[in-house]
Write a structure and sequence with these properties.
The complex is a heterodimer of chains A (about 425) and B (about 140). Chain A has a seven-stranded mixed beta sheet with strand order 4-10-9-8-7-5-6, with helices on both faces. In chain A, strands 13-14-17-16 form a four-stranded antiparallel beta sheet, covered by helices on one side. Chain A has about 425 residues and is an alpha/beta fold. Helices cover about 40% and strands about 15% of the residues of chain A. With about 140 residues, chain B is mainly α. Helix content of chain B is about 45%, strand content about 10%. Chain B is built from six helices and two strands. Chain B has a two-stranded antiparallel ribbon. Chain B is globular, with a radius of gyration of 14 Å. Chain B starts with a helix and ends with a helix. The chains are: A alpha/beta (about 425), B mainly alpha (about 140). Chains A and B meet through helix 12 and helix 14 of A and helix 2 and helix 3 of B.
């Protein structure tokens, strides 16, 4: 452990031992995993929980009267309660299990759209959105003949709030923006964004994919109308996530998909839909995923968000300072408030080349558009290299990245 | 002009002298630097290879029963990879290109770069070149 960390409340070496994947070698070198914004690694506690589910209580939820089904249902619903507490929602009726953020946004774009969006209406998103918070709204706009309006960003990668205010005409029916930018790390002033929208009676959806691993989320304090998270970004399994929605909206929105679980009774003349949250959970859910997500929540809460963000901020600042010492280095995204994501480009070197050589050195970074093509186009770049840090990363690993970049420059620059 | 097999063999010999991955990469990068570039006016969508994270352009030219390839990429490693293929396949008869197995890629340790899911687009480039060759082999 580097002396750089002053306020460390946990032992990183011990923490790393809970992530078996981190001990392996890639291309003969110890793995440095800096692609956490794409997906985080999973601690043993999560893996064991999933294993335990399949080896001891696997069965379908909410239906069987037999013991295993009841046990599986209890575990599944316990995960829902953990998710409620995690987001500080008022009730479990507001917690819909999804496949992840993309699924959650598609659900809202479809069901909210069906109920509330009409021809000529407008939907406000931002220039820094992930494709999954762009395309579902575009599809809705096509379906309903509505219009998409985009909040621009400034050179630092911050939303221009004055422009946002100007966009909020009477036609705007929903605002959907990201809490934290996946490609730049910018933490948006979401409380302010919500207050401005609410002052005009416009509901807000926040994409929390990149916020949940780093920041405490309190949907009541934010007064946000919809909030979506993906378990795999915060140390849980893939294919599992949560849509939080205010009950008044969820209650009034039509179901997204039809099938089992979401119905009360079915006949060929009339089907009655189930109550919340089940109305939006058609089909057998990802039971193991939800239970694993519950364990990921425990993992985060045991560490504590304050400890997580303090440590990750130290990693971010250390990396930013070291990167800035390199000739020809340009960091993309220099917002005042950032999560532990640093996007960069080295003058004259394509991100793909940088990423390929770093991979040979055992360092996993993401290169390209990061599913935010409009944002990268704004910077007129062929892509960026993104290093994103999780709580198990170390200062020594950042030193390895810096060494790696010097090697890239030597080979290509 | 040497045959595809001969060129492949000489590449394999070159690569066999390398012990470090960085030597291989530097060799590939050098190949890229010496690639006969596609003229600027052909850097258009029609000649763009899809499936690469970087931009790749590849233009064939049919002359005297042979196909010549001109290419470029904005990433130097990708450019080196396409140069490797151009070195082997450019100036060959269409049917030889179609029938080439390109086993050398395995022998020089580039097999892992061949999977269609790799973002370097090596397999897309090969498909592209073979598709062109197929058209001319029927002429």
């Amino acid at each position: 452990m580097q002396s750089g960390s002053k306020i460390l409340k946990f032992d990183v070496d011990k923490l790393r031992s809970q992530f078996p994947i981190l001990t392996q070698k890639i291309n003969g070198k110890p793995l440095v995993y800096f692609d956490n914004a794409a997906t985080s690694q999973k601690p043993l506690s999560v893996l064991e929980k999933v294993y335990e589910y399949y080896t001891t209580i696997n069965s379908n939820v909410h239906r069987g009267i037999h013991t295993l089904s009841e046990k599986a249902t209890i575990e599944f619903e316990t995960a829902r309660e953990k998710s409620r507490k995690f987001l500080n929602a008022i009730s479990i009726e507001e917690i819909i299990f999804t496949k992840g953020v993309t699924d959650g946004i598609n659900l809202v774009a479809f069901s909210f759209g069906e109920k509330y969006i009409n021809a000529g209406d407008e939907i406000v998103i931002s220039e820094m959105e992930h494709h999954s918070n762009i395309v579902p709204w575009q599809m809705l706009c096509e379906r309903k003949n509505a219009k998409l309006k985009v909040i621009p960003v400034n050179e630092k990668g911050e939303l221009i709030i004055d422009e946002y205010k100007n966009l909020l005409s009477e036609k705007v029916k929903i605002v959907a923006v990201t809490h934290v930018s996946n490609s730049l790390g910018t933490i948006n002033p979401v409380k302010e964004i919500i207050e401005i929208a609410h002052s005009r009676n416009i509901p807000v959806l926040l994409d929390g994919a990149q916020a949940a691993p780093h920041l405490k989320i309190d949907v009541q304090e934010l007064d946000v109308d919809f909030y979506v998270i993906s378990s795999h970004k915060f140390y849980g399994p893939t294919g599992s996530g949560v849509l939080y929605g205010k009950e008044k909206f969820l209650e009034s929105m039509p179901p997204y998909q039809g099938g089992g679980e979401m119905i009360k009774s079915v006949s060929f003349s009339k089907t009655l839909y189930n109550e919340l949250p089940y109305k939006f959970e058609a089909g057998t859910p990802n039971i193991a995923g939800a239970i694993g997500m519950g364990s990921a929540i425990d993992f985060i809460e045991n560490l504590g968000y304050e400890n997580i963000s303090t440590y990750e901020n130290e990693l971010l600042h250390y990396a930013t300072d070291k990167l800035n010492e390199i000739d020809g280095m340009r960091i993309i995204g220099t917002a005042k408030h950032k999560a532990s994501v640093v996007s960069f480009i080295i003058n004259g070197i394509h991100p793909y080349d940088t990423g390929s050589i770093l991979d040979q050195l055992g360092i996993a970074v993401r290169t390209g558009y990061h599913c935010t093509q409009p944002l990268i186009d704004f910077y007129k770049l062929p892509g960026t290299v993104r290093a994103s840090f999780a709580v198990y990363n170390t200062f020594e690993e950042i030193d390895r990245l810096i060494e790696g970049i010097h090697k890239v420059k030597k080979m290509i620059g | 002009m040497n045959s595809i097999d001969e060129i492949e063999n000489s590449l394999v010999e070159d690569f066999n002298t390398f012990t470090e991955w960085s030597d291989k990469y530097e060799y590939i990068i050098d190949l890229g630097k010496n690639l006969t570039l596609i003229p600027e006016q052909f850097k258009i969508d029609e000649f763009k290879v899809k499936g690469c994270q970087s931009q790749v352009w590849l233009k064939p030219e049919y002359k005297d029963g042979k196909i010549f390839f001109y290419a470029d990429s904005d990433a130097i490693i990708t450019k080196g990879l396409i140069a490797l293929l151009v070195k082997v396949l450019s100036g060959q008869k269409p049917e030889d290109i179609v029938n080439s197995k390109l086993n050398f890629l395995d022998k020089i340790g580039m097999k892992e770069h061949l999977s269609p899911t790799r973002s370097n687009g090596l397999s897309s480039m090969i498909n592209y070149m073979k598709k062109y060759a197929e058209v001319y082999s029927k002429k």
